[in-house]
Structures are given as structure tokens and as C-alpha cells.
Amino acid sequence: MILYNILIFTFGFWNVFKKNKSLSPILGFSFMAAFAFWVFTILGVPSRLDTKIFEGLSVLFGLSILGFILISLSKNKIAQVGAVVMAAVGLNLYFSNPHTTLDPSIKMDQEAELIVELDHHDSKSIIKDLKGLSFINNVHPLLKPKDSESTELDDFYKIDINEGYDINLAISDISQQEGVEWIEPNEILRLDPVSSTQKVGKTKFSNAVSDPMADSQWNMAALNMQDYYPLFQKSKYRPVRTAKLFILDSGVNPNHEDIGSNFLRHKSNDVSGNESDGNGHGTHCAGVASAISNNGIGIASMSPGSDWVTVSSVKVMNNFGFGTQARIVEGIIEAVDAGADVISMSLGGKSTQIKEEAYDAALQYAEDHNVIIIAAAGNNAGDASQIVPANSEIVITVTALDKSLNKAQFSNYITNTNYGIAAPGTSIPSTWKGGKYATFDGTSMAAPHVSGLVAVMRSLKPSLTTKQAFKILEDTGTKTKANHLTGRMINPAKAILEVR
Questions:
Q1: Do residues 428 and 400 lie in contact, with contact meaning Cβ atoms separated by under 8 Å?
Q2: 417 contacts 351 by C-beta, under 8 angstroms
Q3: Global pTM?
Q4: Who's near 63: CB < 8 A, 6+ residues apart?
Q5: Which CATH architecture has domain 114-186?
Q6: Are 11 and 81 spatial neighbours (Cβ–Cβ below 8 Å)?
Q7: Most buried residue among 326, 329, 406, 454 by CB atoms closer than 10 A?
Q8: Any residues with CB less than 8 A from the CB of 93 and at least 6 apart, and which?
Q9: Domain segments of the chain: what residues?
């Protein structure tokens, strides 16, 4: 949004001050630079724009040009400045307007197609009016947070539209209801694991632990984990308290031989779902972060033991690897309210909107309760700033590295994210469904390396914030061969030494 305001203001003031020999060249150059970047954005270099946004911008850009013509025709400077302001206000109205036409490629939950935010002061009356609309089947509240006073999350509701009813017509009609402040699609997201193709040989990590699969854990050797585990045998490195790591995924199998004693059950409306995993993805991520290390079974992980970190599960994706935006938002709320220190999210999808209010509110709820969120950058070989929740300014976004410590071909880059960091993400062996083990590639596999490490850091310093944790990871991290795209690779031993 800043770019488009710059575009409008520079052009407008360029006209206003075109006779000023000092300002005119500067304003003219600024406009040309902003316009060029706008064109690149439209062409997708890089792009966060989808079709509906492009259409909206095209219309508003045309209106803005009309305003600039008026500027050129007018000699009244008050009128000139007024036209610039009007153009900027018009553009801002578009960005703050949630009631836009949806891209037909967006897949929505058929049981609750839309998420709406209602006026807090009159929600009961608004819900009654909504239920009175012939095309609405039902209105359901999202999971209510415990600390409802600190968030607007309890103002969000899911709306089930009658089958066959045009979704854009529904949005138009709902937007006209007094008290409806925001509408967005309840999108269906999908897990995106990548089959592993790299071969792994014996590494220098092999003799550091008793876990038999250590031979295949090149990722642990790359992270110098042989220097990490000895730190916890020294008396000065003892946990202040046990950190709670939550995996938001397809569930976790707590009966797996290499997870069980590190697993912590929490109160939930779906205990059986949280503690099962017909897909395997969530169990794989849990193993990378917090399998039982040095126990003579399976693999080693980032966790020194259950005194340091417990792992818990919130099932937000089904056994086929699909989940909805609403369920993920509810999963964040559930984890925060259950006392999470760190939430690991190896999931996400392409952002189809300028704003995702429900997601933003849930992530902010976590931030306000000092919960650190780690998110996978995504496997689109593109820009992580297009992926939710990886593009949030308050999460740590993780890219995937290959054995050469280059950006994995599939991995998104983190150049345009706030807290970007890297970890191994190819040929990562871990726990799997049915008590088995499997090897996968993906930023999904990279993210839990960081989640597990940050959880250990929180056990040493419970007050550690996202910003502080990231600074430690970045300051102690190792440069990669594509550092500008990946960020630094975590160096676990050095990071622990920096925690104060």
C-alpha cells in the first residue's frame, strides 16, 4: 500500500512543484522509479497481486490519472493538493474494503465458506439478521480465546452458504448488512511435502549419539550437533522450566517409539484427533523438533530431553493433508490458551488477499502472549512474502537448504520477510505414521529444526521474545551459499551459548 501512495503523491506534487528547479527533478525521478516498480509488480517481478487486486488497482489507477489531469488543468494550488489527497484517499478506500470479488480459483470449505468480523457491540443482533438471509445456512463462532479482552478474535464468525448459491453475490449481500466489518474466504489449504531424492552417506555426526539412524542425519552434521548435546551435560545449562512446543499440523502419533516420553497431552475438544496422524506429516515434523535423542532408537532431534521441551499437537489438517483457514486460526488460539511457548507451523498457502484479518488477529494474539511462531517459507520456489503465515511480520520464517548449503530448488526465499532464517530441508529422516520412519524434503522439514531449537532457548530463558530469539539465531548463524535468499543457517550450539 505504501508503494501506491508514493506513486500518487510523487506524481501529484511533481505537478504542483513542476516549476521548482530543485524539487521537480527529485519528484519526477521518484515518480518514475515508483511507476517502474508498479509495472514490475503487475508483471509479477515480484508480485503479491492476484486478479481481483489487479482489476481494482487498474480502476483506481485510472481514477488517479483523472485526478492528475485535473491538477495539470488547474492553477489553483489548493485544488491541486486537494486532487492529490482525493486520489490517495480513493486508493486507500480500496485497500480497506474487504468486499471484493473473489478469484474463482480459491477453494473454500463447503461447510463454512466465509469468515466475517462483526461489530463487537451488537453481534447478537447482527447474527440474527444474517441468519434471516435466505442463502445463509448457519453462522458459527470461531473458537473463543480465553483472554478475549486482549483480542478481537471473538468477533469472528464462520458463515455457511447454501449449496449452489453464488459466493460473490453472497459477499455482496452480506457486506450490505449493518455491523459486518470484514469478509474473507475460508480457504482450503494443503500440505505440500516433497519426495526426497538425495542420497545420504555416513557423516561426522554418526558417533555423537546412540540413535541408529544418526548415520543418515546429514542435517545434524551440517548443524554441528556434535557440539550441541555436550552443552546440556554441564551443570550451568539446566532448564529454568520445561518449554511447551506445539505442532500445528495433521496431528502427532504420541505412541511412536521415538516420541512418546516427550509428548504432552493438553485439554482440547479434539484430543483423539490431536493424538493421531493418518497423514504422517505432523509426526514427521514433531520428530525433527523433538524426537527422543540418544536413546538407542531411531533418530536424534533438536531436543535434549523432556525436561527441556515437551511436544504437543493441535490437528488443523486432515488425514489427506487438507485444512481450512478457520481451523488453523482456531489451532493457534488453542495452542496459545494451552500455554504454548513455541508454535511450529509447517503449513500455509498463497496469500490471495492484501489483508487476512482472522489470521492476523490470531498471530497477534500469540505475539501478545509471548508465543513464538515458526513458519515454513513454502515450496513454490518463489517469494515467501506471498505465503500465509510465512509472510507475517511477527513470525520467524524458515527456508530449506540442501546438502551443499544452497537454497533448495523448491524452497521459497525470505528476502521480503521480517525474520528470515534457514535450516536443512532435503533428505530429512524422521518419525512417521504407523510407528515407522521416512525421509522427506521441504521447508516443512526445515522449520521444525528452528522450532525445536527455539523451544530449548525458551526453556533457558522463558521471557525470550520473537525478536530476541531471531537476533540470536541470526547473530550466531552460519552464512549459506545463497545467504541473500535464505538468511543464515542456524548454529544451535552457538545460539545456546548466547542465551542469557
A1: no
A2: no
A3: 0.81
A4: 87, 90
A5: 2-Layer Sandwich (3.30)
A6: no
A7: 454
A8: none
A9: 2-96, 114-186, 194-498
> Is-catalytic flag, 125?
no
Q: H or E stretch including 351?
A: none
User: Cell numbers 471484493 label which residue?
Assistant: 100
444 classed as catalytic: yes
For residues 1 and 95, what is the distance between their CA atoms, to the nearest angstrom?
A: 7
Give catalytic status of residue 392 as yes or no: no
Strand boundaries in 219-319, DSSP class E: 243-249, 309-315
Instruction: Give the pLDDT of the chain (500 residues) as one tens digit per residue.
Output: 445 555 555 566 656 666 666 666 665 666 666 666 555 554 444 434 444 444 455 545 555 555 555 555 555 565 556 556 655 555 554 445 455 566 667 788 999 999 999 998 889 999 999 999 999 999 999 999 999 999 999 999 999 999 999 999 999 899 889 999 999 999 988 887 676 655 556 667 878 899 999 999 999 999 999 999 999 987 678 999 999 999 999 999 999 999 999 999 999 989 999 999 999 999 999 999 999 999 999 999 999 999 999 999 999 999 999 999 999 999 999 999 999 999 999 998 887 766 689 999 999 999 999 999 999 999 999 999 999 999 999 999 999 999 999 999 999 999 999 999 999 999 999 999 999 999 999 999 999 999 999 999 999 999 999 999 999 999 999 999 999 999 999 999 999 999 97
Catalytic entry in 256, 266, 281, 449: 281
Q: What is the DSSP string of 180-242?
A: EEEEEE-BEEE---EE--------TTTTTSS-GGGGG-HHHHHTTGGGTGGGGGSTT---SS-
The set of residues, in sequence order, having a beta carbon less than 8 Å from that of 237 and lying 6+ positions away, is 231, 460, 496
Out of 3.30.450.20, 2.60.40.380, 3.40.50.200, 3.30.70.100, which CATH number does the structure's domain 194-498 have?
3.40.50.200
| Burial zone of 42 (CB within 10 Å; 0-12 exposed, 13-18 middle, 19+ buried) | middle
Q: In 3D, which of 303, 316, 381 has the Cα closest to residue 342?
A: 303
- The single residue listed with the C-alpha cell 538468511 is 487
249, 277, 383, 441: which is the annotated catalytic residue? 249
